[in-house]
Amino acid sequence: MATLEKIRSKSVILFIVIIVALLAFILGDFLTSSRSLTGPGTTAAKVEGHKVDIQEFNRRVEQQRQQMQAQGYANVDNAQLQNQVLQQMLFETMMDAKVKELGITVTDDELSRAMTGANPLPMVVQQVRQMGINSPAEFYDYAFNPGKYQVPAQTATQLQQAWVSLENQTTESLKQQKLGNLFNGALNVNKLDAKSYYDENATTAKIAYVKKDFATVPDSVAKIGSEDLKKIYNERKGHYKLAEETRPIDYIAVDIVPSADDLLAAQQEVEGALVSLREQPGTEGVSGNLNFVVNRVSAPRAGLPIALASQLDSLQKENVRLLSFRNNQYAIGKLVNTYNDVDTVTVELVAIVGNASVQDSVLTLLNGGVSVDSLIAKGLVGGTQPAQAVYVPQTGVLQETLVSAPLNVYVLPDATSGAEGGNAIKVTKRNSPVQFYDVAEITYTVDPSNATITKLHNDLQAYADTNNTAALFAANANVAGYHLFPAYVTPSSLSIANLSDTRGPAKWAMHAKKGQVSGVYGDEQSGHFLVVAVKDIYDQGYTPANDPNLSRELTNRALAQKKGEKLIADYSGKANDLAGYSQVMDSPVDTTEVTFGQRIVRGFPVGQSMLIAAASAAEPGQLTGPIATDNSVVVFQVVDEEKIGREFDQDNDGMMFNQQMGAPMLSRNVFAILLGKNKITNNLQKFYSE
Hints:
Number of helices: 26
Distance between the termini: 57 Å
Structural class: alpha+beta
Radius of gyration: 35 Å
Shape: extended
Strand order of the largest sheet: 15-3-17-16
Number of strands: 18
Strand content: 15-25%
């Protein structure tokens, strides 16, 4: 009841505004979370016969964009956002399909407990608290007992709709939770799993070793041929399977930034502004010049922005100075004035329930000495906030009240005065005045001039026109002063290499011919100009071995293999102990520890499976090697073994196995597991163009 009384004390109008503002979010999320299976022509993507409707997709994208902008993300890239939303919607679609396939349902009792029970779902609690309500039960009370809180009928109807929407969201969440429980339950750890984990981690071998890195062998010595590359390619061919047609491209991206002439012109303008600001009062020295943005701050030293407070002593001496020049932005500071004023006061707050006449009566009673508790008991006051120190704002009605209201007298200064409810304030103490600083922070951002932008565009276009094949485009880039970047595009690509606003060139590349070079894409808004060249077209199911990136990988693997074979041939049998191998291999003896169940061996890169297996199988004192690891040839000897020191514990070892190899680990790949061998058809490129 105390919580409900606290809610009643709030302004009803303010409360309704908060409710209605958040209502659209909840209703929108429910409406757009329904699954559409519309026919051809409106399918953004599909998988396993299930479709994502383009209209629903657009609603979700816009909703997500608004949320991100509300969180302070000013520039949201369309392509990246659409990719994120599509992945989420495909995951939801596949989850829903699996829920229906398994016949998973939610009972009324389960739903009630999840929403208004003793421990409601965190998702439900979070959404309700965003409305300023403490619990789902109270939200239900507001929606279905509106007269109790003086909520208008129209708003009550909207609240009821929001409640139903929240019920539907919760139902879907519970279904997915049940599916997750089934997934986890299907992967029960048995005794053999637990024992294997215990055995693999029961013994740690301490080894002394000598190693010789592959890097000590010149590439020219490790001669490789086409057959070596072909062999490795065929052994690993499964890694190179293509999910869809793929096109390797080269691109040149030119940032649209100020030229040297632009920077010089800006420097001269800023220097002139510094002179004018020193000669003229206030900020009149830059008045009328739209290139300069003025932010006026009046506060004690502690209340100034850090950039101003850190240079306040210098400003007091120079009055006007250049504060910084970072990221093509100048910051100028000017100390306009100093004065003394009150910065903090101590206040008490009382929340009055009722209209203007009630407020006046309550103020009279409060100032006449009637206790707050007695007014709470009569329902005239919803609650009180004890005395606390607050900063005085620089402007507004509240500032006037805190500075000029008589001490120890309740007043109603806020905007709700005269409406339903209001907060009465009593100033009990004003601290002694402190020194205030009236400071102007003036910024000037150096933007590229029209002449610079035109030149950047025209120069890049001229390069593309002259080097109009992929081969020429790549061959002459460095000479022309451009940096060439490789990338891949597919029918699912909505951008190039995650660059913002590159959906247009990505779409162009998927329709261009092999060897073709695009025109110039981009503008000031995107912040860059970009040209693309299509190097090849892969549509045979696998990345070909001659792909530049794959060719480098195959070459590196072949080189490592050849170098390992050479080093083993060079050192095998050349010594009888580690000291001898240390001398022959010109490498010191070192020590480390190896456990079969681990992935990391100190002193070696991650994933040394050959070393881990050999060390775990070797007998103590046995000289082993030389053997090839991923990056070196090693000779080692087990010098000690340490047992785990405890007996097999099926529960504990089963838990550890589960964490590393069971459901918790596999749950990170639920999407891939649900997808299986099914392919995703992504049609977004067909719906959008730059």
